[in-house]
Amino acid sequence: MATAEADVRGVLDRLTDAWNSGDAAAYGRLFTEDADYVTFFGANFPGREAIESSHQALFEGPLRGSKLTGALGGAAKVRFVRPDVAVAVVGGGSSLTGAEVADEGRESTVSFVLVREEGEWLITAFQNTRVSDPRG
To answer: Domain containing 75: what range?
Structure first.
């Protein structure tokens, strides 16, 4: 499992790199064709094409120059449901100014389900939840 875990972490690192480069095509390639991508505000972008096109608009618009903070792959808790299915949970955030620390209110916990298809690990489900004070 050590190699599989490193491979899963590598996918998360490539996801960070693609975001930080504003590369929606590279970002989308890390997902299965039928992936579900649930944003922090509850919208679901079903499928690789929707994930890529929505991120293209974000990277060209309100999230231009933004950065994900921290290394997702290095910080993730990874467990294997089966040898070809992994769940990864990671805390992280984003900075709209490109800083190394998340902007206030932009910290999240992200859950990933990854599957190995034809020897390649891909994300099939993504859920981003903003960290907030449970008292409201």
So the answer is: 2-130
